[in-house]
Amino acid sequence: MGPAAAPQRVPEALPQSEARQPLPESGSEARWLLLQRLRRHGADPRPWLERLEHGELDPEPDLLAALTVLVDRAGAERLLALARRQGPEPLQQALVRELPGVDGVVAATWLEPLLAACAVEPVWLAPLGRCRERRVAQRLRAAIAQALAEPAGVLQAAALQAPPLDLLDLLPLLGQQRQGQDAALLLRLALDPGPLALRRAALEGLALGLAAWPQAPLGLGLARLAQDLDPALAAKAVDLLARLPAGQPLLHRLAHRPLEASLRARLGRRLRFSPLVLLVHGRSGGRIPAELEALARDLAARRGAPVLLQALTAAAPDADAAFWAAARAAGALTLVPLLLLPGGHVRHDLPAIAGRWRGLAGAAAGVALRRLPFLGAWPAWQRQLAARCAADRQAGFDPLWLHHPLEGPLAARYLDHLARRLAAPGLATPYSAQAWELPLAGSSPVALLPMTLASNRLSETLQAAARAADPSPQLPGQPPVRLHPPLLQQAPVRQFLIDTLEVLP
Q: Residue 163 above 60 pLDDT?
């Protein structure tokens, strides 16, 4: 089945005398107004074609540009025939300028004549490439294969007195065709060592067809290009990654790589951060300690995205319009359980809370839920605690970390693991325990590390006992004691959390 015939235009007859008058001087306002009037009224182009064919008018690009949108297929063939006699450049310039932005009628009018012309005169590939069609893509592939085989990478147009086409012209045109099969070639040429101009042209082709390419290999290839030594290539790759639906995770990974300063600044402008929901224990009545509120404020300021605090002891907060707008922009929201032990909250409450947020995210178009493991399971967090215990040992104290009593085999395995990781024992300590009730046998100084992010009843009780034992927090019959404040009140631990949570996608 052959191609559909181009729709026919019905020209409007302007005064015949206007088509016979001399054209105003090039660059003049009168000439611009006349040509705009021709286009706007869809004037009959035949008198103008006759004058061109008889040599009464010069084939200048602005006049030809006006005629390209007025002619039918026969008129297009007449203009091409005129170009073969007088030189292709003015018509080529006019078509290159007009075809990308015209309607389907004009593109259909020129498609068949340009395909026929390209069969013998490759120079017409430049305007033909502006028409998006399967046969055009095939012609461009063949021309690119030929140019790649040539030592100079050019496609000669020997029959015409016109510049040859080279890969720098052809690769963007191929990308503009948006045929998914062409992504592999463009990506390979952009990545492979070679002339920078050629690599940039291939990347431009990728940019022009960005939405049509297979996204997974495209994203990985662009992430590689974003680390290229050529700053222009790297900057363009970062910009394209920011336009991909799944590009944000790749951009966030790049943030951890060594990058040149200007590229890092560019990357920072392209990153979009998901809103965070920080799940915390809270205190009775749903009260959230000041340390956690300050953490949320600082994170929101650094990330430029909302941060919600959800306390286990209170009803879930309602996310406002700004929260969901940020979630849609980032394509996700992130649930971060700031819980330190695998107790009942982690095993039972957390899955239910995650399910609620997953349902809310599903109701918001294009938003996914990212759920992180509970904080106590993070290897980097455990390294922070191990560093705290090591510093105590170096200062002459035996570290002892205090945790809420837990039950079950999973909790027992975790506590054993953490004791090995910290090279320090743990002590199950109820919130109601008093300082003098702690079994601190022996005479070696002890450093107590309450395993709590923010102030709770246990930390406050211990601090009150320490203040009462002035000038030294040592109780009768017990060894010297160093009492650490809750973890978020310790600058290195707080900074670790800020730095880690700040760069989450």
A: no
List the structure tokens of 44: 């009959």
The tokens describing 80, both together, are 């091409």
Token pair belonging to 440: 């601190």
Residue 252 vs residue 403, higher pLDDT: 403
- Under a CB-based contact definition with an 8 Å cutoff, are residues 275 and 334 in contact? yes
| DSSP line for 318-364 | PP-HHHHHHHHHHTEEEEEE---S-SHIIIIIHHHHHHHHHHHHHHS
Q: What is the location of CATH 3.40.50 in the chain?
A: 276-376, 379-489
336 and 501 Cβ atoms separated by less than 8 Å: yes
Bigger pLDDT: 16 vs 262: 262
pLDDT digits (tens, 9 = 90+) for 84-96: 999 999 999 999 8
Q: What are the b/e assignments for 284-312, b being 16+ CB within 10 Å?
A: eeeebbebbeebbebbbeebebbbbbbbb
Whether 10 has a pLDDT exceeding 50, the answer reads no
Task: State the Cα torsion 133-76-125-162 to the nearest 10°.
Answer: -170
CATH assignment, 276-376: 3.40.50
Measured CA to CA, the distance from residue 131 to residue 100 in angstroms comes to 7
Does the pLDDT of residue 169 top 50, yes or no?
A: yes
- Measured in degrees and rounded to the nearest 5, phi and psi for residue 426 equal -110, 160
pLDDT level of residue 457 (50, 70, 90 thresholds): confident
- pLDDT tens readout for residues 426-437: 999 887 776 656
If DSSP codes are grouped into helix, strand and coil, which group holds residue 394? helix
Cβ 180 vs Cβ 217: under 8 Å: no
Query: How many CA atoms, within 13 angstroms, populate the side-chain half-sphere of residue 367?
Result: 24
Q: At what angle do helices 167-177 and 196-208 cross, to 10 degrees?
A: 20
CATH 3.40.50 at 379-489, yes or no: yes
What whole-number distance in Å separates Cα of residue 60 and Cα of residue 63? Answer: 6
The tens digit of pLDDT for each residue in 365-381 reads 889 999 999 999 999 99
